[in-house]
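Worked example 3. Consider a protein that binds zinc ion.
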Amino acid sequence: MTPFPCPYVFPDSRRCPGHLVKIEAFNADLSWVFGESGGWTFNHSQPRSRYQLFCSERGDHAGDSLPEQMKCYLSGIYHVQGREALNGD
Ligand SMILES: [Zn+2]
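Given these inputs, the predicted complex is written out as structure tokens:
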């Protein structure tokens, strides 16, 4: 499987050479539901706030000047999906 490249771009326009090694979800709801089959089913929601990306070279880039690039906010994702839906009509 091809690794996902790190999205971080340094202030001098150089791309980080790392690849993603971890994604953490913030404020996601987890639940277990007991079903008629007698087993528990695990469910998880989309996170309510954001994802934090970690790469193989610099982790979450917290020590670099633009660590915000490693945070994915869901409001932005929903906005893009909404636009695509509008264009499809
Ligand atoms: Zn990186």
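Take a moment to read the result before moving on. Confidence is low (pLDDT under 50) at residues 77-89. The first helix runs from residue 74 to 88.
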